[in-house]
Description:
This protein is mainly beta. It has no helices and eight strands.
Amino acid sequence: xxxxxxxxxxxxxxxxxxxxxxxxxxxxxxxxxxxxxxxxxxxxxxxxxxxxxxxxxxxxxxxxxxxxxxxxxxxxxxxxxxxxxxxxxxxxxxxxxxxxxxxxxxxxxxxxxxxxxxxxxxxxxxxx
Length: 128
């Protein structure tokens, strides 16, 4: 059985400024086999006074909704906190079921200090 896989960038490795929010999304309606999400929060040399939180959301939509907070379209399925310790890494790994139609990752909540964040997805595009 051959599998076709595709690497997808949801949020490239970047700094999330204090009090900022970064979101990225993927339309998975064409994916046949789900995939695997990895994400990361890394605190800087001075830890934030409030932790950065990674929220993984899905939408039950046939077309990709606009980026946005959890609500009418986006539904939270998991949350991970990056803690307050300086230089502390928080790796995140989550399998994504083939039934998922749309996926969004959000990083927000860190105060006083920036943190480094990223989210990538290994997609099964064809299962055959």
